[in-house]
Amino acid sequence: MESELGDFITALNFIFGSFVAYFIFILCTLKLKTKPLNKPLWWWSMCLLLALLAFDELYMIHEYLGSQMGFKDTLIFLFYGVLLGVLLLFNLKETFTKNTFFFLVLFTVCTIFSQVADFLYTEGTVVLLGRVISYEQFLESFGALFLSCAVVTIAIRELINKDGHIDDTSQ
After folding, report:
1. What's the pLDDT score for residue 34?
2. Pairing of strands 125-128, 131-134
3. Torsions phi, psi of 127, nearest 5?
4. 74-129 pLDDT, tens per residue?
5. Residues in Cβ contact with 146 at an 8 Å cutoff, skipping those fewer than 6 apart
6. Reduced 3-state DSSP string for the chain
7. How far is 24 from 4, CA to CA, in rounded Å?
8. What is the pTM of this model?
9. Which residue ranges traverse the bilayer (predicted)?
């Protein structure tokens, strides 16, 4: 059931987070902010990782690599998870902030259950609002959305000044 609308929506959710990370990276490198933004390399890495996940979702890279290397594509997801985990560890203070952590927990739950659904039901589907949706794809789409929401919460905190307002760089 790959290459369906659900894959596109999942990729779009990842691309949204990637664009947010890229925007903050650009702010870092162009120094448009009055205060220095921390970790421009972190933002660039997050941008690239989310873009890779979107590209993988659209072009089924994990399935291809798994079949070429002779193992289940879940191992490719584990590799992506390790990359994401290492990246989040480099920004530990932001990772464990209340709202970011909440979205990361939801992302983790959706990711784990999507893999379990894929294993148990292979291509099991449910009809929702008149559309046939794969269990795995449904959970992946929401997981991608939650991960992008976590990136947005970190970006918002990066842009807010100590008064609780978004810094105005035009002054």
Report:
1. 47
2. antiparallel
3. -95, 120
4. 788 889 999 999 999 988 888 888 899 999 999 999 999 988 887 787 667 777 77
5. 103, 104, 106, 107, 110
6. CCCCHHHHHHHHHHHHHHHHHHHHHHHHHHCCCCCCCCCHHHHHHHHHHHHHHHHHHHHCHHHHHHHHHCCCCHHHHHHHHHHHHHHHHCCHHHHCCHHHHHHHHHHHHHHHHHHHHHHHHCCCEEEECCEEEEHHHHHHHHHHHHHHHHHHHHHHHHHECCCCCECCCCC
7. 31
8. 0.85
9. 12-30, 42-62, 74-92, 101-121, 141-160
- Per-residue pLDDT tens over the stretch 28-80: 787 655 455 557 889 999 999 999 999 998 888 887 887 788 777 778 888 99
Residue listed under structure tokens 């920004």: 91
Residue type, 138: F
The answer for 129, left when phi > 0, alpha when psi is -120 to 50, beta otherwise, is left
